Each structure stands twice: as C-alpha cells, then as structure tokens.
Request: fold
Amino acid sequence: MTSPPTPNEHELRRKTVAAGLAERKLDALLVSFGANLRYLSGFTGSNGNLLILPGKSILFTDPRYRTQAPQETACHVKIAKGPLLFEVLGGIKEFGLRRIGYEPSHMTCESYEWLKSRLPLKAALEPANGWIEQLRMVKSPTEIDRIRRSVQTNSRAFELTVKRVRPGMKEQDLAAELEYRMRRLGAEKPSFETIVAGGLRSALPHAQPTAAPLKAGELVVVDMGAIENGYCSDMTRMLFLGTPTTKVKRTYRAVLEAQLAAIDAVRPGVLCSRVDAAARNVLKACGLDRAFIHSTGHGLGLEIHEPPRIGKRDKTRLQPGMAITIEPGVYLEDFGGIRIEDTVVVTEKGCEILTPTNKNLYVI
Ligand code: GLY
Ligand code: MN
Reply:
C-alpha cells in the first residue's frame, strides 16, 4: 500500500476521462483492469471496479479493503457484499446510465454476458478499448521518478549480486539472489519472473531458470526487473564465465551497436517502427537480423509490457514522457543468445537512459 503520487494526480486523470465521455458518447466508463484502476484511483487492491461518471467516481471493492480503499483513494468507496458486478449494476440503475464504456480486452466473457443480460432496457455496454492505456503511455514527472527509482533498485541488485557469480552456481540460485537483493533494496517484487539462462539455453529469449549449474566457457543471460511503488523496471545484461571467444565478442559488439543505434533514434516525433528499424539495420549489416526474433522494446510503467511496442509495425510516434525499453537480441540455437536491455525515457530533445549499469560483457 502506498500513498497517492501527488494529492491530485488521480483526480486529474479521472477528470480527463470524465471530460472525454461526451466525445465518445458515453455516460460512464467501467474500469476493472488493475493497472488502469490504480492509475485512475490510487487503489492497489486486487479486486475492484471503478465507475467514472461526469462529476463522480465510485470504487466498488470487497470487505477485505474496507479500511485500505478509503486510505488510498478519494473516490466514493462502495463495499460490495457479494460479487462486485451486482453493485455496479445497482449503480448503473441508480444513475440511469445508458451507454457504459467497458474494457473489452480486460473483462471476462462471463462478466460481460452477466452484466449485459441484466442491464435495464435501452442501456448498453460500449467498447472503450485502449483508452486508459493511451493515457498511461505518457508518464508524469512523478511517474518517471518512480520508474527511475525502480530502475536504480534493480541495477543495484544486479551489481551487488553479479560479484558473487561463480561457475557451479545454479541458474535458480542466481535468480533467487537477484530477487532477494531487489526486495532488500526496497522493491515490492520482481516485475516478471527473473530470467537466468546459461549456455545454449541463453538462446531461449524467455527461459525459466533451472537447477543447471553455470559452467565455464558459457554465456549467461540475466534479464530482471523490479516493481517499486507500483512501477516497473527492466534490464538485461550478459555474463561470460571464462575467456570469451572471438565469436562471442563479435556477436556481443553487434548487439551493443544495434542497441546504441536504437537508443540514438529515440526522440519525440519518431515512429516506434523507425526505432525498431535502427536496431534491425545494424544486425542486418552483421548478417544477424534473422536471429533477432522479437521487437526492439516495449513501454513500461504500472505494467512490465504496455504500449507502445517498439516493433516493426507500431506507428505510434514517440512523445516526451514515454518510458520504453530498448532490448535487441540475437538467438542462435547452436551458439546461445545475447540481449542487451536498458530502460529509457523520451525527453524533449532525445532520450535519457535511466539504467546506470555498465553495458560491457561481464567476464567472470
Ligand atoms: N525483459 C522481459 C521482457 O521484456 O519480456
Ligand atoms: Mn523487456
């Protein structure tokens, strides 16, 4: 549980939404997705529905949050005795709402059908997909501060732990140490399951740590992120146990150059696809583009993956305040994988790299 970022930030966001209702021909917006709910209300509980009307917002939650919810939000709090949607339906009837926006990508089919079939005559659910996610793409200075803190905690946890890596250490144990360290430094939890993968398993972009020992002569990928005050960080660094071969060094340099080229392309007005192309072009010149099998990065904030996507097809134009990752990688089944990832924020002139951690290959 945390205090609101600034006294009025959530309220201002709700006002922005309330002001946008008429333009969308909506009487209200029903928000059920946790990150959007937190963004708009400050409520951090696991079960809530928020109904935003012009001039009024009601947060529905369950008795577990009777004390917590009013501490976290200035919305009117309604504690539901049974399923939250019963109470939401009551609110829809009480306020005579006709057109109720909802989040199709977050509401279950069951909830949608339940509510739809019980709405008063002439009332309807209208999809309002991605609306809040669009607002969340551009972060406020308070949010950027929180991301910066999360990035710093994450980097510190990496830097303290990497010193203790030795051949023979299990992937799982290294992942556990990293997560323990980030929590000791103030993180609430990891922002995703920490990835530690050695040898050929480093070629699995989203490997899960196993009991396999880290071995001399092998690459190790470490991809980790923290959540602090609700905000995520994300970083990938590579270790090598022993003396790296020429191929390892050459491939590492290619990925680093791709990453630097993409960071260089980050500035307001630039298409996300253009940033992706900057990384891809460098790898193409090195004959490695076919081994780069994912997009160059993603937005992050209250979620570890949120819009925009720094990918081939994303035509979003970058704006100051967007927080994104830049993480090109190459994956070769018979060699291993190399990925380098930083968290950056778009500024008026270009970008600021938030990640303070050295980007050299960590030779152990
Ligand atoms: N660093 C994990 C991911 O972006 O999926
Ligand atoms: Mn990432």
